[in-house]
Design brief:
The protein has about 200 residues and is of the alpha+beta class. The protein has 2 domains: about 45 residues; about 150 residues, no CATH class. Helices cover about 40% and strands about 15% of the residues. It is built from 5 helices and 8 strands, in the order H-H-E-H-E-E-H-E-E-E-H-E-E. Strands 1, 4, 5, 6, 7 and 8 form a 6-stranded mixed beta sheet that branches. Strands 2-3 form a two-stranded antiparallel ribbon. The chain is elongated and about 85 Å long. The chain starts with a helix and ends in a 7-residue tail after the last strand. It binds zinc ion. The site of zinc ion (ZN) has 5 residues, from strand 5. Zinc ion binds next to strand 5.
């Protein structure tokens, strides 16, 4: 009777001990899982895990050794709106910064995927080029640069853009074939050392 009772108590106590163990461990595991899930969603700040085409293009352009983005302004001013800054911002999924000096309006804009696609296509076709500005720097007051649809180039295949120098005319023609509707270069006022390639303004701007 006594030993039988002991065995019975052991039988009952053993599963209870297991339950108590799990009742301590399970909330810990659940807490950890919740922390991981909450941490992940906070890290992405609600942004989609699917990258936009402009993000993907910017990431690919930054990794392309044929396309160089200036990490300075031709004016010598310093801010976070150089061509390189604009590409990095776009690759990170945030708007591209504009400059705040001269006629530049400050604030931010989004880079045009069609323009980024043209940059990539030109590199894929074999051009090596140096971009001096996109949304940043000071340009004319209603410049398309401020809308993220224009970029400037001062060197193509190692040759500086000058009146009579190689490559820039065909580079302009290629951009026009890919949708650029405003192209300027040597011979146009203010463009003796660079070419300007611009795509249409976004609707209403
Ligand atoms: Zn320009």
């Amino acid at each position: 009777m006594t030993s039988g009772g002991f065995v019975k108590r052991r039988e009952i106590r053993y599963p209870n001990a297991m339950n108590r163990k799990w009742s301590l461990i399970l909330p810990l595991i659940m807490g950890l899982l919740i922390a991981v899930v909450v941490g992940c969603s906070a890290g992405s700040k609600g942004r989609s895990f699917i990258k936009s085409s402009r993000e993907r293009l910017a990431i690919s352009l930054l990794a392309n050794p044929r396309v160089e983005f200036a990490n300075y302004h031709v004016s010598g001013k310093r801010d976070n709106a150089t061509a390189l800054d604009n590409l990095k911002q776009t690759a990170a999924g945030v708007p591209a910064a504009r400059s705040s000096y001269g006629r530049a309006p400050g604030g931010f804009t989004q880079l045009d995927p069609q323009m980024l696609r043209a940059m990539k296509k030109l590199a894929d076709e074999g051009y090596r080029f140096h971009i001096t500005s996109i949304a940043g720097s000071s340009h004319s007051s209603r410049s398309r640069h401020y809308l993220g649809v224009a970029f400037d180039v001062n060197k193509i295949n190692g040759v500086r853009v000058r009146r009579g120098s190689a490559y820039w005319r065909e580079f302009i023609r290629k951009c026009e074939a890919m949708g650029a509707t405003e192209t300027l270069g040597p011979g146009d006022p203010g463009h003796s050392t660079h070419i300007h390639l611009a795509w249409p303004r976004p609707p209403g701007q």
